[in-house]
Amino acid sequence: MNSISTFPTLMRGHYRNQRQAFSNPSKWPQIDIRITTPQRTTIEVKSWYKYKGEENPYNHIRYEWEHVDEKVIYSKTYNLIHDHSSCPFIWTWDGEWWRGHPDGECIQESTEIITNIRFNGIDYRVKDVGYDVETGRQVYGKDPSEGEFFFTMVDK
Q1: CA distances (Å), 115 to each of 19, 54, 70, 79, 141, in order?
Q2: pLDDT in 10s for each residue of the chain, 156 residues
Q3: Where do the domains of the chain lie?
Q4: Which of 35, 62, 88, 131 would you label with 42, given CA atoms 20 to 30 Å apart?
């Protein structure tokens, strides 16, 4: 299988963490993620809380990607909600998962962002945490010790 050609195909779809949210509603909010590919080398990822609806996303990122080699993709990112560039991402294929993280330190305004994403065409897993650069205090996301958000494909 050509891993580069699978990158947008495996990522594209509608995902939800319903099973995780229902297992412990006070700990895990129900979130939906819709990933589209409006152009061949463009991926858009929109995330929203189920109760607020898709028209009110809390995150909406565009990835403009290019392959570095057969197992590595580099992407420039753009935050569509706040209308500014964001930190570039590196994606690597390990034979089972595409794994993504910022390319180096990621600081947006006064927040250091630490993000790890992995997906395989059915499951989409995310750890996304922000820390105040001055104080080191966590300002968004789940405590990393609580693990990843577990999303499963709802539909392509």
Answers
A1: 22, 22, 23, 14, 10
A2: 456 668 998 999 999 999 999 999 988 999 999 999 999 999 999 999 999 999 999 999 999 999 999 899 999 999 999 999 999 999 999 999 999 999 999 999 899 999 999 999 999 999 999 999 999 999 999 899 999 999 999 987
A3: 3-155
A4: 131
